[in-house]
From TrEMBL:
Residues 1-15 have a biased composition (Low complexity). It comes from the Bacteria. This is Short-chain dehydrogenase/reductase SDR. Residues 1-34 are annotated as: Disordered. Belongs to the short-chain dehydrogenases/reductases (SDR) family. SUPFAM superfamilies: NAD(P)-binding Rossmann-fold domains.
């Protein structure tokens, strides 16, 4: 991929929308070619409206999977665009708006996905929230910590609990971690801690669910150009976003999705469980 020109300073309210981003992210709309690696699989992708989730939805659909996506009500335009792309690939798209920090909704979303798709084989725990703050721990406030931890950890566990009533032997769970689990930034201390915890949960679940024939892995992205960034980082820091990795640029959502396809595919990753696959532009994930 060509080197990234600098991102212009820009700001959105969380969760942010794709249409307001400059430049528009690349979700693989023009580039992703499927080869039937997920034929007939039924996947739930939380936060599948935009960013890494949208790129994953496109790739999964082009690999032959039907896709349900979770998202917040305010993201309806992004969700409809992802659904359009899934349907354009000839697959079923199921839209599941709602707030995953609501325990009842989070516990029930897998049932809704299974109802909409006729079953569930793959869960991608991709929804996440962060907010950049001052570098001092003094700048943490309880309401923000609650939002980060409920979204990234409680909701992930609730959604997973709900999904386990549906996932068969051969089922797959993929959690979305982060480079922040390995190289935590001071201004993301609460978020980074949830991503380290997600790595641990991935190991725990792989151990528990292996005997049921369910593989559990995580992907750890580095800096990726998604709505999360203009919605949660200071506008003036966006021009340098991603320039501190060995490859010298931010990644695009389209560059993360193939890692999720690999982990979801039984043809490719049948003996891969309990691991974290870094897609970081060169930063270490060990
Ligand atoms: P994104 O904003 O496109 O996706 C995050 C999604 O999370 C949103 O679209 C939203 O639908 C969902 N979400 C957030 N709070 C929710 C709630 N309360 N209820 C329901 N849904 C909710 O951004 P993204 O960067 O594609 O993020 C996807 C995942 O990737 C997140 O877990 C994020 O932490 C992780 N990640 C992103 C980066 C990056 O640089 N963009 C790096 C490492 C990890
Ligand atoms: Mg979104």
């Amino acid at each position: 991929m060509a080197p990234q020109e600098q991102f212009p300073p820009q700001q959105q309210e969380p969760p942010g929308l794709t249409g307001a981003m400059d430049p528009t992210p690349d979700h693989g709309e023009q580039s992703y070619r499927g080869t039937g690696r997920l034929a007939g699989r039924r996947a739930l992708i939380t936060g599948g409206d935009s960013g890494i989730g949208r790129a994953t939805a496109i790739a999964f659909a082009r690999e032959g999977a039907d896709v349900a996506i979770g998202y917040l009500d305010v993201e309806q335009p992004d969700a409809e665009e992802t659904a359009r792309l899934v349907r354009e690939a000839g697959r079923t798209a199921c839209l599941l708006p709602g707030d995953l920090t609501d325990e009842a909704f989070a516990r029930g979303i897998a049932q809704q996905a299974a109802d909409g798709l006729g079953g569930l084989d793959v869960l991608v725990n991709n929804a996440g929230y962060q907010m950049a703050r001052g570098t001092s721990i003094d700048t943490l406030d309880s309401a923000e910590m609650d939002r980060v931890i409920r979204t990234n950890l409680y909701a992930l566990l609730w959604v997973t609990q709900g999904a386990l009533a549906h996932l068969p032997s051969g089922g797959v769970i993929i959690n979305v971690s982060s480079i922040q689990a390995y190289e935590p930034s001071g201004k993301l201390v609460d978020y980074a801690s949830t991503k380290a915890a997600i790595n641990n949960i991935t190991v725990n679940l792989a151990a528990e669910l292996g005997p049921r024939g369910i593989r559990v892995n995580a992907v750890a992205p580095g800096p990726i150009w998604t709505p999360l960034q203009p919605a949660t980082q200071e506008a003036e820091h966006l021009p340098e976003f991603g320039t501190n990795v060995p490859l010298g640029r931010a990644g695009q959502p389209a560059e993360v999705a193939p890692a999720l396809v690999f982990l979801a595919s039984d043809g490719d990753a049948s003996y891969v469980s309990g691991t974290v696959l870094g897609v970081t532009g060169g930063r270490p994930v060990f």
